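Progress report, Aim 2. The chain analyzed during this reporting quarter is listed below.
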Amino acid sequence: MKTTAQFRKTTEPRKATQLRKTTQPKKTTQLRTLLNSKQLEFLIEAHDGISAKIAEEAGFQGIWGSGLSISAQLGVRDNNEASWTQVLEVVEFMSDATSVPILLDGDTGYGNFNNVQRLVKKLEQRGVAGVCIEDKLFPKTNSFIKGTAQPLADMDEFCGKIKAAKDAQTDDDFVLIARVEAFIAGWGLSEALRRAQAYYDAGADGILIHSALHVPDEVLAFKREWGDRSPVVIVPTKYYATPTEVFRDAGFSIAIWANQLLRASVTMTQKVAQQLMVEQNLLNVEDKIVPVAEIFRLQGVAEHAEAEQRYLPQNGGGIRTVLLAASRGIELGQFTKDKPKCMVNLQGQPLLSRIVEEHHSVGIQDITVVRGYKKEVVNLPGLDFVDNDEYDTTGELVSLSRGLQELPQDGQDWIIGYGDVLFKKYILQMLSGVDHDFVVIIDSSQHRQTQQIRPDYVACSLPDSTQAFYQHVYLQQISDQLPEGEICGRWTGLLKVSQQGQQKLRDTLNTLLQSEQVRQQGHVIRCR
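Predicted structure tokens for the chain:
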């Protein structure tokens, strides 16, 4: 692509989703409701503010503050190498970012009964709805690493931790789950039941029964014997192939997807890092990852942007796109019998919809579509429409003129394009980053094509080469009759007009459209 642009993001994030409601119950109450639900509920792991936000937006009603995942994102092992205050800081950001309850994986409670009491107080202060503590020795080791070699805590001492935690809480709905590691340590069902009963009698609100087997036999056997004495929570990480209906029929209270978001992020991060190392280029990566605008949205940048509008001087800015989509596209035959070519489906989605999505991905929200043929079909939400009812007797310049007449005088630059020309988002980013009155994007890989109808071949002040990088390259001529040796590429159908250039364009259009021939045949960039 020939352009003077340097890559510069101009995303304007969408308005952040407002998830909090003033009538929403306390987070502790929400978690207790999930725990005591008559149906199987689900928590999903999160390990930082953004993963917690993603979990909530996916529809999960509660979050598991995974010790493994939080340790991993800090780059340390899951054996209390991260201090409890470091974990507390992470979970505070998670709580601030969400409105659903968080159950923290509190390991062994980070020490004795005194440490557990202090932990509960600090969690309540930060809006964390509950904590799960396990009956192993401090410092603990992850249950899936040589589990049978890990000693269990003294049962009576662990019961003391539970009592201390319940005495420390000031919110009656704060939840404490006792995690039984008897199966992990190889002590069997009888010991698991004995410990669970003691922990329940000590005041635990529920029991998490853990197993490292690849089948759910141990947890199912426990639930059959335990019955409905208290809610029972499971973590099916190892026995993931078990149908969820098995857990539901057995009467478990909550199933925790305990580390999948972390593992998914590692998968994609490794893939992208390896690809960038090999290719040394962003081109094949950008369309596979979320735009920066989505990160801004998850961060809640929209609130800050609104504050800037209120408190900072405004000098105009932003971009509005005008898409010309009035013609039928008769060359497509039956495909456009009942709809214009901009609404022809490509892989189940109209062309115009794909173009609008690319604009949204770089923060361009203000889009005006000039429609004509079968205009009632061109009805995508969130767009402004201008009609050219003379589409069959006038050319593109009339459509453009009518579109521009309806644009507000709001200080925005314009991008002018077509409703049926597909492109990738980096094209819009390049256009947005060039500060000239008129900017076009030239595809230098496209030379003469005999099958092209009215090809827009161009001659430029410099051919495409490394010498053209960071140079001003000027359009000198555009025609379908250029000699082969003068062709530098083809116009892509996109034109950017700055605020300063807009009146020049309006004046030029008014002059050109005084000619009846131009009104009937006028092509956007051929009239010069």
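Confidence is low (pLDDT under 50) at residues 1-21. Residues 401 and 509 are 7 Å apart (CA to CA). These observations will guide the mutagenesis work planned for the next reporting period.
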